[in-house]
Amino acid sequence: GDYVDIVVDPSVQKGMPFSFYHGRTGIVFNVNRNALGVEMTKIVGNRQLRKRIHVNIAHLRKSRCNEDFLRRVKANDQKKRDAKLLGTKAVVKRIPEGPKEMKIVKATAEDVEVLTPLPFIENYF
């Protein structure tokens, strides 16, 4: 169930996946002696197919795609435990950043530079 990235190592030809899968992320569904079964989706036409391929471990590395999610889950669980001890309710929702603070730009008339296009002059030679 771990996430893995498929990064082809050209020095190892055995168990090399087809070029389409290079750079893709999938979920491990099977473990063999020197290969892993990886499941991912592939868009074919107007549908998503679930593809299962076996790839040599030389062409795989553990993905970091859900590290932030797992870290957030642990932090939220800790917040919930602390809030339960204090008898309060923990807020674990992510809050969007929102708009930036207002600024007023002051400038004198000499600082303002107006950029206007040059008038078109037609030359008849």
What is the element layout, followed by pairings?
Blueprint (H helix, E strand, L loop, with lengths): L2 E4 L18 E7 L3 E10 L2 E10 L3 E3 L4 H20 L39
Antiparallel strand pairs: 1-2, 1-5, 2-3, 3-4
Output the keywords.
5 strands; five-stranded antiparallel β-sheet; 1 helix; alpha+beta; 125 residues; flat
Nutshell version of this structure?
The protein is of the alpha+beta class and 125 residues long.
Describe this protein's structure.
The protein is α+β, with helices and mostly antiparallel strands and 125 residues long. The protein is built from one helix and five strands. The chain has one helix at 67-86, and strands spanning 3-6, 25-31, 35-44, 47-56, 60-62. Strands 4-3-2-1-5 form a five-stranded antiparallel β-sheet, with no helix packed on it. A hairpin with a 2-residue loop joins strand 3 (35-44) and strand 4. The termini are far apart. The mean pLDDT is 95.
User: Can you list the strand order of the major beta sheet?
Assistant: 4-3-2-1-5
Residue fraction in strands: 25-35%
Order of helices and strands: EEEEEH
Mean pLDDT: 95
Number of strands: 5
Radius of gyration: 28 Å
- Residue share in helices? 10-25%
Alpha-carbon distance between the two ends? 77 Å
- Poorly predicted runs of 5 or more residues: none
Largest sheet: 5 strands, antiparallel
Structural class: alpha+beta
Question: What would you call the shape?
Answer: flat
* Separate helix tally: 1
